[in-house]
Design goal:
By secondary structure, the protein is of the alpha+beta class. The protein folds into two domains: 263 residues, no CATH class; 135 residues, no CATH class. Helix content is 43%, strand content 23%. The strands form three sheets. Strands 1, 10, 11, 12, 13 and 14 form a six-stranded mixed β-sheet that branches. Strand 11 and strand 12 form a beta hairpin. Helix 1 runs antiparallel to helix 3 and helix 1 runs antiparallel to helix 11. It starts with a helix and ends in a 5-residue tail after the last strand. This is Energy transducer TonB. It comes from Pyxidicoccus fallax. Keywords: Membrane, Transmembrane, Transmembrane helix.
Length: 419
Amino acid sequence: MSAAGVLRTLLETTLASSAAVLAVMVLRGVLRAGFGARIAYAAWSLVPAALVAVLLPAAGEGPTSAPALAFVAEASPWAFASEEGSTTNPAAWLLAGWLVGAVATGLWFAARQRGFWRALGHLRLRDDGMYQAETVAGLPAAVGVWRPRIIVPMDFDVRYDEEERVLLREHEHQHLVRGDLRFNATVVLLRCLFWFNPLLHYAARHFRQDQELSCDQRVLARHPASRRTYGEAMLKTQLATQPWPLGCHWGFCHPLKERIIMLKQPLPSFSRWLSGCVCVLALTLTGGYAAWAAQPNDAVAAHLSAGRILVTAVLRINDDEPTTTTFVTMPGQSLVIDGSANGHDWAIEGTVARGVGNQPDVLMFHSTIKRDGKVVATPRIGMLSGQPGMIRMGADPHAGGENDRIELHITLTAAGAGT
């Protein structure tokens, strides 16, 4: 895939993920109140669903194979022609900047994670299968993506009584069995890829809040008579000063008051939970379909036979509505865009060629504009595959005639450029 293609995919996934995040942020409170914290947490599945949907092949019909295209427009004598286009590749510089940002963000997360691991000191395996650290801040916690483990503070047996220790272990165990550590690693990966999107970083905080509330609800479902003890264990837990990027632990940026309030609320019934699952499934499928259907249908160039070129032209005459046409051609094959208007016959004859000078990747579009068989302009434009260019022409303002103008936005995509 070309640099321009990567950037376009990045833009499309950014828009899709942002829309999904906004939808979840709006609905999470309603879902939690109506169906419980577990359903609100499950609603975040809309974000990866939207991302995957955007990466699927777009819908729609493919381009026509006819080499000729006609249009009719008002016309007047042309006095000059201008062309705009670039054979440079600014997309490569933008792609390099994005890559630098993604790597820098990943290194920042890695440094934080390494710092937290080093702060734990020596980890001692306990008889109950958990590990005991030489510190207390941010613990207990479930950490590790490839080798998940539960780590408790050095004063675990002193600070908590037996029932509280059972509840805390159950809480961290729920993180492990539900795969929350892998979900958190996915969030970190997305924050690295979309490091330039502040909305995603903001949403990560609320994702972790819903994760903890969901885990609390699961613990209470297994220990319904231990609400008070569970709340006391929360109050005893020392809040972490900084979060683990890849861990699940108590006190991570979620309001303690919100968790205590939830302890007083009855657990949702099975029917409410099931209704919530249906709502989340419908939300995910609808959002994913919307993201898939909204993407432009330009991936067809990846399926063209060798040597063919996909041409997308957007023509605008004066202030009229632009007309978009897509078709397939071969290098050197003549294209004719003709029509008649205002008593004159107009024809735009063009060919596409590969390479210019020492730049073999450039696609050239040579055109000849005729009125009543007489050549009035011969503009040409060069561009890289998949990058748009424009030819602008207009009447001479000093000739005293109407200031008619035409803009032709054209994109040439070589076969296989979308792969």
